[in-house]
Every structure is written in structure tokens, then in C-alpha cells.
Amino acid sequence: MTDVHVAALCGSLRDDSVTRTALERALEAADDAGASTELIDLREYDIPTFDADRSREDAGEAAVLAERLRKADAIVLGTPMYHGSYASPLKTALDYCGFDEFEDKTVGLLAVSGGSFPVTALEHLRSVCRSLNAWVLPHQAAVPNSKSAVDGDEFADAKLEQRVVTLGRRAVQYASIEPDPDSFESDQNVGAAGK
Q1: Which residue range is the domain that position 47 belongs to?
Q2: Which among 47, 55, 24 is positioned nearest to 37, based on CA atoms?
Q3: Strand, coil or helix: 130
Q4: How many other CB atoms are found less than 10 A from the CB of residue 46?
Q5: Is 149 left (phi over 0), alpha (psi -120 to 50) or beta?
Q6: pTM for the whole thing?
Q7: Boundaries of each NADPH-dependent FMN reductase-like domain copy (predicted)?
Q8: 76, 7 Cβ separation under 8 angstroms
């Protein structure tokens, strides 16, 4: 594919983030598949906790973040799992976005956990994306046991790395899909309009 741009949004603020390492590997695979790529690292943004009474333009760098996501043909969301769900920095970033950034866009999901598979974090992100009428890739990447899954910036398990690589390739492969019909959740999500 040519002229496809894939953005990965990292919901981890840790310096030694396995989430960031995994997203970088997914982006390498997307680049190998012919896409331009960028890592959007939430550590680099000043975004306050979401307040519905505050416009996105008055919310630090939320408008800059939204603009970068709008320019992507596909987005890969990456998060550590905290208390069975996804990380609050990612929640805040997504709350400042809406249909303009996600509707009819291909989204890939990646979650990391210190213990067993981060399935609930992936499920929660899938629900959020459906409410924004995004088309979420059926393939998702889960990175369990993060302390042993990655050594430096290398995956210790080739099968696990392959799942992450496949996510990056699928983001490119399905970037131009035209989803139909809208989801029930998106029809009910009036708060995502006009962000």
C-alpha cells in the first residue's frame, strides 16, 4: 500500500515502557508494509484531565493531538492494563477526541500487562472505538508478563513479537476499508460529535 499513514498512540507514561517498545515494533512492521508512521507519545503532551465544560482548544495540547490523529489513515492504540482496564492518560486523550478523529477509521489495539493476558483492557478499548464508529481490527496484540516479554527493546518470545508485527501489517492492509453500517453505540454517542 502507498500513501497510508499509521499513527500509534502510546498510553504509557513510563520511561521503560513495554507498551512503547511494542508500538515501535508494530510501526516498524507498518513501515515495512509501505506506510509512513509516527509514534504519538503522551509523555510529550500537556493534556489536562477531561472536562466537558472546557473546549479542546483550551485544553493544553489536546487540539494538537487530535489534529495528528485526524491525519492518520489508521491508528494503533497501545496501553498498559491498570486495574483491569486501560490507562488514564489514554482515556483522557480519547475523551478529547471524537468522530472527527475516529469515525470510519481503522484502529488496531495493543495492551500490555505485568501478569496474565490484558483481555479486559482490549475489550474496553474496543467498546470505546465502536462508540466512535471506528473499524477495529479483529486481530489484536496482547503482551502478558511484560517484565519477561521484552529485554531492552527486543522481544524475548518470537511468537509474541509476530502478533505485534501482524498488528502493524494489518493496520496498513485494512487502512482503506469502508466499514458499514454504523454501530448502535456510535448512534447513541452524542458527546463525540463536534469535539
Answers
A1: 5-192
A2: 24
A3: helix
A4: 9
A5: alpha
A6: 0.92
A7: 5-146
A8: yes
